């Protein structure tokens, strides 16, 4: 589950926020399997989509994270949740997207890391209301 500014997000919803206001993010990982899972790393990467196949991830002048954009998850037991909180601060107006990826964080394996990517979250940063 993904919440942006307290609202549940899915890939069809555009979340609107104001430039200069921190936007709270919450990502909840629920383990529906019968076995414990982990360790994982959760990474959130903002980008702009130029609608021509190009994604701009170089946004350090437009967006900043309040806190970290990567969280380490040790283990999630069966039917339990692991919830992570963060915040984004938009410095300019525009349409932005947030990639949220989970990947295995086990360096003792010789196999490539496996990834689980959630649908991108669409966030529209607007001018503050005067």
UniProtKB/TrEMBL annotation:
GO annotation, cellular component aspect: trans-Golgi network
Protein name: TPPC9 protein
The organism of origin for this protein: Promerops cafer (Cape sugarbird)
A Pfam family reported for this protein in Swiss-Prot or TrEMBL: Ig_TRAPPC9-Trs120_4th
Residues in Trs120/TRAPPC9 fourth Ig-like domain copies: 16-125
């Amino acid at each position: 589950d993904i919440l942006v500014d307290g609202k549940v997000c899915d890939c069809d919803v555009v979340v609107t926020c104001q430039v200069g206001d921190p936007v709270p993010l919450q990502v909840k990982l629920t383990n529906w399997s019968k076995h414990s899972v982990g360790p994982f790393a959760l990474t959130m990467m903002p980008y702009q989509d130029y609608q021509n196949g190009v994604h701009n991830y170089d946004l350090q002048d437009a967006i900043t994270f309040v806190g970290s954009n990567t969280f380490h998850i040790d283990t999630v037991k069966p039917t339990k949740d692991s919830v992570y909180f963060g915040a984004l601060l938009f410095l300019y107006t525009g349409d932005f997207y947030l990639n949220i990826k989970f990947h295995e964080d086990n360096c003792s394996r010789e196999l490539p890391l496996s990834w689980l990517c959630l649908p991108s979250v669409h966030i529209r940063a607007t001018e503050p209301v005067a």
